[in-house]
Amino acid sequence: MQIRHKANRIRLLTFKTPQMRAFHFSWLAFHLCFFGWFGIAPLMAVVRDDLGLTRTQIGNTIIASVAITVIVRLAIGVLCDRIGPRLAYTWLLCLGSLPVMSIGLADSFESFFLARLAIGAIGASFVITQYHTSIMFAPNVVGTANATSAGWGNLGGGTTQILMPLILSGLLMLGVSETLGWRLAMVVPGIVLFITGICYYLFTQDAPDGNFSELRQRGELEPSSGSNSMSSTFGAAARDIRVWALFVVYAACFGVELTINNIAAIYFFDNFDLSLATAGLIAGLFGLMNIFARTMGGVLSDLFARRSGLRGRVRWLFIALLCEGVALMFFSQMQALALAIGIMLVFSLFVQMAEGATFGVVPFINQRALGAVAGIVGAGGNAGAVAAGFLFRSEALSWQQGLFYLGIAVVVASLCTLLVRFSPEVEEQQAQAYSEAAGDNGDSALSLR
């Protein structure tokens, strides 16, 4: 895919260009998706009592919330190659809002489980966000653009943990019972998602020069030939060992973040004898680090690329992931609340920097099958969350033991970065593209104007 007129700067306060509209709408849409995807997580203590759920059943719902996303992410990346990110995001948001609003109808473990399974499809929004920014921004800033849009999107994991208990508290103050309150609370994110989907359709476009359908009519983009084209791009990505190495890497960072989003509130609630609101506030700090941490991962990826090319991007990814695993093992051993919060923030920093570093590499694996690569790697995050979910559904393992074993797995996964290599020709080509993009850029890549 050869997309022209990519932006070589990120002007945060500019909404006039299609690149910056895509940037802002993509991160905002992904941010709001967390309210649907994980809005129920900080309310689980209430849901547990209302539906009489066991720890094993709670673990199964956690797995359900991320399992279906693996499949949808694989499909959505290829769909982006075919119909473009604008239509893909519009349909995902509008259709995804329906199970979010209907989860309140659940009256048993089985119906609640199915609702969380359906809601999990919303998590595919991440792939569209990364796809859209990847085709809008030049090589010198694509790491920063991808990391910032995803990071501000992931920030929704933190704001969800904080705001959803407050929404429930507001409903309780109006005299609504807890049983009805958590059900009504989930209607709010459902409505917001539907409205966002309509806005995405109205105010964004697929590429700097227009939508994919227009570019194909003008001969500026390769035609889409239906299922054969979709299978060929997916096949090209699936045959590349580097894609699966990044699949494992992303499982070890974003998969861990999804797991913490699901268990953090109830972990602090049970282990430190806190109120639901306080536990949600502390759990929200983990996600709030996304306001800058994932961006740092992308910025450092671009800086390493300036010095050492694509090898530098991979080297930084290894460092971030290794530090994440070590920090997680330390976090699992904390018994004092203050220390647990402090180490959690350090751990969160490296988790999100590793995520930013991962998608600082993804755009350079196979540009002709960008959607398929992004879809497979993005699916890795959810596959990791599914695998981690089994650690926390077992009655035999404590929360601390599960987190410690998860930290060991992350350290081992960091070694997969050794498989991500590029040919000298690709290294030279991308170094030249980086220099050309940076040559037109007289000041910082990330600015307010």
UniProtKB/TrEMBL annotation:
It is found in: Membrane. The chain crosses the membrane at residues 21-46, 58-80, 87-106, 152-174, 180-203, 243-268, 274-293, 314-331, 337-362, 369-391, 403-422. PROSITE patterns: MFS (PS50850). Belongs to the major facilitator superfamily. Nitrate/nitrite porter (TC 2.A.1.8) family. Pfam families: MFS_1. GO terms for molecular function: nitrate transmembrane transporter activity. It is a multi-pass membrane protein. Its main location: membrane. GO terms for biological process: nitrate assimilation. Gene3D superfamilies: MFS general substrate transporter like domains (1.20.1250.20). This is MFS transporter. Keywords: Membrane, Nitrate assimilation, Transmembrane, Transmembrane helix. GO terms for cellular component: membrane. Residues 22-425 form the Major facilitator superfamily (MFS) profile domain. The keyword Protein biosynthesis does not apply. CDD domains: MFS_NRT2_like. The keyword Transmembrane helix applies.
